[in-house]
Design goal:
Helix content: 40-55%
CATH topology of the largest domain: Rossmann fold
Radius of gyration: 19 Å
CATH architecture of the largest domain: 3-Layer(aba) Sandwich
Number of helices: 13
Shape: globular
CATH superfamily of the largest domain: NAD(P)-binding Rossmann-like Domain
Bound molecules: nicotinamide-adenine-dinucleotide
Distance between the termini: 40 Å
Length: about 325
C-alpha cells in the first residue's frame, strides 16, 4: 500500500518505520526543515530501550513538495491536534477521492476538523497506545509496544486498512465504537497532562499526591456530563482504573506527559482539544465545567509564560 504519514514527528516516524519494514511504500510529510534534512541525509535514528541505534531510510518531503507526489492509498495524520487543520490545507493536492484518511492524533474535535476539508466517507477515526519521543532532529527513542483502534466514520468496511497496519505489527483492531475509545483516552490525558504541568510533577510524583484521584474526578465528572450531551457514554470507573494502574510506582517511572514537554519546549499544547474541549461544549450545552475552565486557562497562561521566557533567551524564537 502507498502510505503517507502527515506529521513525521515522534510517533509518525515510529509508525512509518514499522510500515516500511513490512513492505509498504511509505513517505513522511513534515514541515521541520532540520528534521527532514537529517532523515533524508543520514536516515532516521531509532533507539529502542537504550540498545544500539539503528538507521532507517524513510523518505520525508516538505509540504511544499507534495504537489508532485501523486496518489496515496492511505494518509495517516499524526500532527499535534492544533496543527491538523493547517496540515490538511497544506496537503490538499494529494488528497483525491480514493484516499483514505486515518487520524490518530490525540484529543477531541479532530473529526470535526477533518470533515471541514474532506468527504466524511474518506475519514477513519482512530486512537493509538503506541508511544515515541523525538529527542533531536532525525532521532526518536522508543520503548514498549502499543495498539490502534479504528472505525470508518460512515461505518464502511476498512478491514483492509487494519490488515495493512497489522502486516506491520501495529495491533490494529476495528471497533464498533471508536468515539468511546477516543473519549476514554482523552479522559486519561485530560488528567495526567495538565496536572503534571500545573504541579510540576512527573507521573510517579503526581501519584504520590494524596488528592490526585479527587482532582481526576473533578475533571472527569464534568467530562462525563459533556460527553452525555454529545451522545458519548463516558465510563469514569474504567478511566479511574486505568489511571490507578498508570500511577502505580512500578508503572509510572519518571515519565513526563507530552504536555509537560511541550511547555518546556515553548510549544502550544493540545489543551483546547482536551479540557478546553469540555469547557467549550459545556458552554454550548449550558453544562457548568469550572474545573476544566480553570485548568485550561492556567495551561494557556503557562504556555505564554514559558514562551516569553524562551523568546527572551533566543532572539529568533517566534512567539
Ligand atoms: P510531534 O510534535 O513529535 O510530531 C508532529 C509533527 O508534525 C512534527 O514533526 C511537525 O513538524 C509536524 N507538523 C505539524 N504541522 C505540520 C504542517 N502543517 N506541515 C508539516 N508538518 C507539520 O508529535 P507526536 O508526539 O508525534 O504526537 C503526534 C500526535 O500523536 C499528537 O496528537 C499526540 O498527542 C499523539 N500521540 C503521541 C504519542 C507519543 O508518544 N508521541 C502517543 C500517543 C498519541
Amino acid at each position: 500500500m502507498k502510505i503517507a504519514i502527515a506529521g513525521f514527528g515522534a510517533l509518525g516516524a515510529r509508525l512509518g518505520v514499522m510500515l516500511q519494514k513490512s513492505g509498504h511504500e511509505v513517505t513522511g510529510i513534515d514541515g521541520w526543515p532540520a528534521h527532514i534534512a537529517a532523515i533524508n541525509t543520514n536516515g532516521l535514528t531509532v533507539i529502542k530501550d537504550n540498545q544500539a541505534p539503528k538507521k532507517y531510510f524513510v523518505p520525508v518531503m516538505s509540504v511544499s513538495e507534495v504537489a508532485t507526489a501523486g496518489h496515496f492509498d492511505l494518509i495517516i495524520f499524526l500532527t499535534k491536534t492544533p496543527q491538523l487543520d493547517r496540515m490538511l490545507n497544506d496537503i490538499e493536492p494529494i488528497i483525491d477521492r480514493h484516499t483514505k484518511l486515518l487520524v490518530l492524533s490525540n484529543g477531541l474535535g479532530n473529526i470535526e476538523v477533518m470533515a471541514k476539508h474532506v468527504i466524511r466517507d474518506q475519514i477513519i477515526a482512530g486512537v493509538t497506545l503506541w508511544t515515541s519521543s523525538l529527542v533531536k532532529p532525525g532521532e526518536i527513542h522508543i520503548t514498549g509496544s502499543g495498539s490502534i483502534k479504528l472505525q470508518a466514520l460512515d461505518g464502511s468496511d476498512v478491514q483492509f486498512i487494519a490488515d495493512a497496519l497489522n502486516q506491520a505489527g501495529l495491533n490494529a483492531e476495528i471497533t464498533p465504537d471508536v468515539m468511546t475509545a477516543i473519549w476514554h483516552k482523552a479522559g486519561i490525558n485530560a488528567v495526567l497532562n495538565p496536572l503534571s504541568v500545573l504541579l510540576n510533577a512527573n507521573i510517579a510524583e503526581f501519584g504520590t499526591a494524596g488528592n490526585a484521584m479527587d482532582m481526576a474526578l473533578g475533571i472527569l465528572n464534568e467530562m462525563k456530563q459533556v460527553g452525555a450531551s454529545q451522545g458519548i457514554k463516558v465510563d469514569i470507573q474504567a478511566i479511574m482504573d486505568d489511571l490507578s494502574r498508570l500511577l502505580k510506582p512500578e508503572n509510572a517511572g519518571n515519565h513526563y506527559p507530552s504536555m509537560y514537554q511541550d511547555i518546556q519546549n515553548g510549544k502550544r499544547t493540545e489543551i483546547d482539544f482536551l479540557n478546553g474541549y469540555f469547557s467549550t461544549i459545556g458552554r454550548q450545552e449550558q453544562i457548568s465545567t469550572p474545573f476544566n475552565d480553570i485548568v485550561t486557562k492556567m495551561i494557556h497562561a503557562k504556555e505564554d509564560i514559558e514562551r516569553a521566557k524562551i523568546a527572551k533567551k533566543h532572539e529568533n524564537f517566534e512567539i
